[in-house]
Design a protein that fits this description.
Blueprint lengths: L3 H9 L1 H14 L5 E5 L5 H8 L4 E6 L3 H11 L6 E5 L11 E6 L11 H12 E8 L2 E9 L2 H12 L7 H7 L4 E3 L6 E12 L8 E8 L4 E15 L2 E4 L11 E12 L4 E11 L2 E11 L7 E8 L8 H6 L10 H12 L6 H11 L7 H15 L2
Parallel strand pairs: 1-2, 1-4, 2-3, 4-5
Antiparallel strand pairs: 6-8, 6-10, 7-12, 9-13, 10-11, 10-12, 13-14, 14-15
């Protein structure tokens, strides 16, 4: 999910916007039905109507859907768009659709529940011969030299004065981040890591290996990742270094330590992304070999953003299969609210009862209203 400010930033990305506009122009006809997943402020839904769509189903989880609804009304197409607040995986439609359009990516396409959402919509809603926008994304990787980026990551922990902050530095180098890389910073590659074909993909987890030959001597600080997207035949864009800057940026996956490399060295990357809940756990293993794949090993690192989480023993034990959970006070409040959502009481009446049950927490019904509204929005029908 994105904030309203992030939706505005997407609208301001003219390269992305022009590509999606052209893809919709080529795909939507006068009898088309369209599903816009993650409609945000409704830009794709409005474009589909402009290109003649018979009806658009615009799905959005957050408050930006109200902006989209207002814009549709102001532009005279409110009768041709059905706005549905929720997650696409939880909704149903009265008919199949001819076009599904979405941009649920972050810096990379492996973002949140993007892949499961698109796969679910394709299986349940897309008519035979229908169009998916985007059609595919290819993720690329290259070895990156960027002392400035690496220093910004580790400097607070290496310049700690009298204290040894190495344990914190080890956490920092297991966290990837968004950057903007330049072509002259690439020491080797690029190489394609994986292509996500949305017409076929059903698995959210992705893994693959690649081998990069160093093209010029330097110091390797990490891996730079980006994607190239094919929206429909003949319509594509890329977030690669050197291309017009897009909202997505590039992903920087640091090495545990910088490594000096020479032309001809081979650097191997084993990269894996596993969806756990609503977030990806990334693992990247790097081996640097001198003078080729059979050369002596200069360095080897195994990293994961799971290792960047400073979990306590108590926290880990709570998630073990042998743990016996009990409700906290927050849990009891939520349980009470859910039990009162029987279809008979108003939001205000529920808030009054919650305040009566937890007077120390909510002195009056008005104090419980925000909590009740949030639970009702998230879990109510």
């Amino acid at each position: 999910m994105y904030s309203l400010a992030e939706h505005w930033q997407m609208l301001a990305d003219h390269v992305r916007g022009a590509a999606y506009e052209e893809a919709l122009r080529r795909s939507v006809g006068s009898e088309s039905t369209v599903l816009d997943i993650g409609t945000g402020t409704g830009a794709f839904a409005l474009l589909a109507c402009a290109f003649g769509a018979r009806h658009v189903y615009a799905v959005e989880y957050d408050d930006s859907i109200e902006v989209a609804r207002t814009l549709a009304r102001e532009n005279g197409v409110i009768d041709r768009i059905t706005f549905i607040r929720g997650l696409s995986t939880d909704v149903s439609l009265p008919e199949g659709v001819d076009v599904i359009v979405s941009d649920l990516r972050g810096v990379l396409p492996l973002h949140g529940r993007h892949l499961p959402s698109v796969a679910d919509a394709r299986r349940r809603f897309l008519n035979p011969g229908g169009v998916l926008i985007p059609r595919s994304d290819t993720i690329w990787a290259a070895l990156l030299q960027s002392a400035e980026t690496y220093r910004a990551l580790v400097a607070p922990w290496r310049e700690g004065g009298r204290f040894d902050l190495e344990p914190a530095r080890r956490l920092a180098v297991n966290r990837w981040s968004k950057i903007r890389a330049m072509p002259d910073q690439l020491l080797g590659g690029p190489q394609p890591w994986v292509t996500l074909d949305y017409a076929r993909i059903d698995e959210a987890n992705v893994a693959g290996d690649l081998h990069v030959t160093v093209q010029k001597p330097g110091v390797a600080h990490g891996w730079c990742l980006w994607f190239e997207s094919t929206l429909v035949d003949g319509v594509a864009f890329s977030s690669a270094p050197g291309q017009p800057e897009l909202i997505y940026g590039n992903g920087f996956f640091p090495l545990t330590d910088p490594v000096a490399v020479d032309a001809g060295d081979v650097v191997s990357l084993s990269l894996q992304a596993n969806l756990v809940g609503n977030e990806y756990v990334w693992r990247w293993a790097t081996v640097v070999r001198e003078g080729g794949e059979a050369g002596a090993t200069k360095a080897a690192f195994n990293q994961s953003n799971f290792q960047a989480a400073p979990l306590s023993v108590d926290e880990l034990s709570r998630g073990s299969t042998d743990a016996i959970p009990t409700l906290s006070e927050d849990g009891r409040v939520d349980q009470t609210i859910l039990s009162l959502m029987s279809g008979e009481l108003s939001i205000g009446a529920i808030a009054e009862r919650v305040a009566a049950t937890f007077p120390a927490r909510f002195p009056a019904g008005r104090d419980a209203l925000p909590r009740v509204r949030e639970i009702a929005r998230r879990s109510g029908a």
